[in-house]
């Protein structure tokens, strides 16, 4: 089976318990939960049985251990996660507003996560990789951008493939060079997985069909538009395949896009038809939102298949 690799932020997430809760005053918090978009992605891919590894860095603290233990338990290759004693693991504090939007307080660049590098372990992991997945949120510093671009070059040079989820977080977008890096990654991608309005950040078209046609003409193999509870639509040079979402009670939306992407890319790498890859991906995205915490709704393939067959959540 093909091995997939991602590189980027490994964080713990601390969540405000109440909708509309402000971080400007004390309030009840939930967590820590293992997190970081590429970590969620790699954890879900591994849970589905795909060989998958992550390049990143954590501190020599409980939060770092929490992340490494979880990824290992899910079956991921953690050999290229560096542990930096003397640095703290990165954090993401999230609070949900009444309009369902999210507000994050991130500590990424100045945490252990910011020390990401293409060291010997990362080079070794990439030597065995067939596919690289890049999250836009992972392009948080010059250093992180260099790691992502070099991973792409290494894997493409031996005929491997690339997927890209913009995963835009306004709180990280201020990083210098990020906008240019987002475009550079897209230009090298085979699979593009935007959600909602993200599609229009990369196209001059103002309608969905126009944007999809323009981006496909630039050399992508396919575009998968994530549409929250409504499911997703796949586009390639032959046409489109739509797949409606699964009905679940959403308790926490964070992580859905990462779990969806992991499932889609894993099944694309296995040669599954678009409709089949979309079905598993929609199921993983739906399951992700049924649990508080971005990785708590990751389940193995057997549980995902049982959910698809019965509609009952694990
Ligand atoms: P993230 O918050 O992780 O960045 P995203 O914005 O990238 O998510 P979404 O479109 O919110 O992506 O969700 C990805 C997929 O997860 C959807 O395409 C769908 O399959 C599934 N999903 C998300 N929310 C729900 C929901 N409420 N009910 C059922 N499925 C959902
Ligand atoms: Mg996302």
Number of helices: 10
Class derived from helix and strand content: alpha/beta
The largest pleated sheet is described as: 9 strands, mixed
CATH architectural label:
3-Layer(aba) Sandwich
CATH class: Alpha Beta
CATH topology descriptor = UDP-N-acetylmuramoyl-L-alanine:D-glutamate ligase
Characterization of this structure:
Belongs to the carbohydrate kinase PfkB family. The protein is built from ten helices and 13 strands. Helices cover 35% and strands 22% of the residues. It has a single domain, classed as UDP-N-acetylmuramoyl-L-alanine:D-glutamate ligase (3-Layer(aba) Sandwich). Strands 5-4-1-8-9-10-11-12-13 form a nine-stranded mixed β-sheet, sandwiched between helices. The two termini are 27 Å apart. β4 (52-59), α2 and β5 (81-84) form a beta-alpha-beta unit. The protein has helices at 37-47, 62-73, 120-127, 142-157, 170-173, 178-187, 208-217, 256-269, 274-288, 301-310, and strands spanning 4-7, 11-16, 29-35, 52-59, 81-84, 90-96, 102-107, 131-135, 161-165, 191-192, 222-226, 232-236, 239-243. The structure holds adenosine-5'-triphosphate and magnesium ion. Magnesium ion binds next to loops.
Kindly list the characteristics that best describe this protein:
alpha/beta; UDP-N-acetylmuramoyl-L-alanine:D-glutamate ligase; nine-stranded mixed beta sheet; four-stranded mixed beta sheet; 13 strands; globular; binds magnesium ion; Fructokinase; kinase; kinase activity; ATP-binding; transferase
């Amino acid at each position: 089976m093909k091995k997939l690799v991602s590189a980027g932020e490994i964080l713990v997430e601390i969540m405000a318990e109440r909708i509309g809760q402000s971080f400007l005053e004390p309030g009840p918090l939930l967590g820590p939960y293992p997190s970081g978009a590429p970590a969620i992605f790699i954890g879900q891919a591994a849970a589905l049985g795909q060989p998958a590894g992550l390049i990143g860095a954590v501190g020599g603290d409980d939060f770092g251990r929490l992340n490494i233990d979880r990824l290992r338990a899910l079956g991921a290759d953690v050999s290229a996660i560096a542990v930096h004693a003397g640095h703290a693991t990165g954090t993401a504090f999230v609070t949900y507003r009444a309009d369902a939007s999210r507000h994050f307080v991130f500590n990424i660049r100045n945490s252990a996560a910011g020390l990401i590098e293409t060291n010997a372990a990362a080079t070794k992991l990439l030597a065995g990789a067939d596919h690289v997945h890049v999250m836009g949120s992972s392009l948080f510093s010059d250093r992180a951008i260099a790691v992502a671009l070099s991973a792409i070059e290494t894997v493409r040079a031996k005929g491997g493939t690339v997927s890209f989820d913009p995963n835009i977080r306004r709180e990280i977008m201020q990083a210098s060079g990020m906008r240019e890096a987002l475009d550079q990654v897209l230009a090298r991608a085979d699979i593009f997985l935007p959600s909602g309005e993200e599609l229009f950040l990369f196209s001059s078209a103002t309608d969905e069909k126009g944007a999809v046609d323009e981006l496909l003409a630039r050399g992508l193999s396919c575009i998968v538009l994530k549409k929250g509870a409504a499911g997703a639509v796949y586009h390639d040079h032959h046409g489109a395949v739509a797949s409606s979402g699964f009905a679940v009670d959403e308790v926490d939306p964070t992580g859905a896009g990462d779990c969806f992407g992991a499932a889609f890319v894993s099944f694309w790498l296995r040669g599954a038809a678009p409709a089949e890859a979309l079905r598993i991906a929609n199921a993983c995205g739906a399951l992700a939102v049924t649990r508080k915490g971005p990785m708590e709704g990751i389940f193995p393939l057997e549980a995902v298949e049982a959910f698809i067959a019965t509609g009952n959540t694990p």
